[in-house]
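Comment thread on ticket #2218

A.B. wrote:
> Attaching the input chain for the structure job we discussed in standup.
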Amino acid sequence: MKAALNNTMLKNLPEGRDMDIYDTKLIGFVLRLRKSGRHSWRVNYARGKWHTLGRLTDLKPAEAREQAKAILGDAAKGKDVRAESRRAKSATFRDYLKNIYGPWAKAHRKDGAATLARLQACFDSEIGGKRLPEITHWIVEKWRSKRLKDGKAHSTVNRDVTALKSALNRAVEWNVIDANPIAKVKPAKLDRRGVVRYLSDDEETRLRAALAAREEQARAERANANQWRLLRGYPIMPDLRAVPYVDHLRPLVLLAMNTGLRRGELFNLKWSDVDLIRSILTVHGYGAKSGQTRHIPLNTEALAVLQGWQKTTEASKGLVFPGRDGGRLDNINKSWRGVLSDAGITGFRFHDLRHHFASKLVMAGVDLNTVRELLGHGDLMMTLRYAHLAPEHKAEAVARLTAAKESRKESVA
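C.D. wrote:
> Ran it. Output below, let me know if you need it in another format.
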């Protein structure tokens, strides 16, 4: 039987019999149906030579078609497809990451390089030398128990396991292994509504003061240096008192507090994403964790910060916060830790500025769905961690019980 192998065709598959459906567009691309329901995608890459791409339930038609094209292309170049498959199946996890999954992840995933580094750092010593089918549920559970005992957070370990599962799922899709050996490993339960760290009013005041003091110190040091250079006839450096900011730290922190942007989103921000006239900035999906574009209104302080920073840098294009070489800024840890120390603030990360932004919104009466949209959360579950900061809503709900009881008493009377 011949048919166009696509999503429309899958809605009307023949049932109860064994048969092969040959694609009308790509010669050699076949869907094999079985009475048992274990249908599979296959490719006939040479006379009498077949390669199974994967199960129908694991691969979409477009994905299977792309794999079939690749195999047919390799066969046309004289590559031994069966030998390649055997080598892949006998490869160790380390080899699989290096030669198969790693190149694919870097090419097709935004965080591919970071994911590959995570997998290598977390699992190489434990399973790097094992063949993929030798990786068992018990090995991963033992690894997880050790990581938790060493003090790693449940959320961190969950992300590690998720990355491993994803890599092995791809191995199943590519017919390297028949099934994911750790498919039944469940993530550790997390308290998604745990304590949210944000700045108290006093801490915020101290942080702002420390940021201002740091800048004033830099200005004083520059003035002293210029005085020394002037006396000796050396060229003087730009006067830092002539610009609103001495460097990127203060505007970065203030903008994070007023927009809730993640550190990476701030580092990726371009002047073309900022509309100072309409007071709005755009976080594009390709640079956002959620992959979704969102628009954030700029309040008066955020707008003033960006205007002041633009005056400081005299820039209107490129990155808003470039590194010293003009490339993407990638690290502010030293200066950030220094200002926290000066402010006497402990247990607070740069990412917590995002929690601070959300917490202040909720405490000001902003509804959770609006907060979700501003933060760029994919669903409300992540935003619910801030719900307890609006206790008046719960108090009002509970108060209705008393009101209803009083109402019934009055009606009886």
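A.B. wrote:
> Thanks. Noting for the ticket: Residues 97-173 form one domain.
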